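Q: What would this chain look like folded?
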Amino acid sequence: MSSKTLLVIIGTNPYGGSDAAWNAIRLAQTALESGDKVRIFLINAG
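A: My prediction, written as structure tokens:
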């Protein structure tokens, strides 16, 4: 199977009480373990 690239954009506050950022990182880790490439962009207001 060919390698794919996953783009993950995280735009939530990591200390806001949401698990969204953590779950995005877990998804990226799973993709890496399956042999895919991962790019992560972190954005935040401010």
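The longest strand covers residues 5-10.
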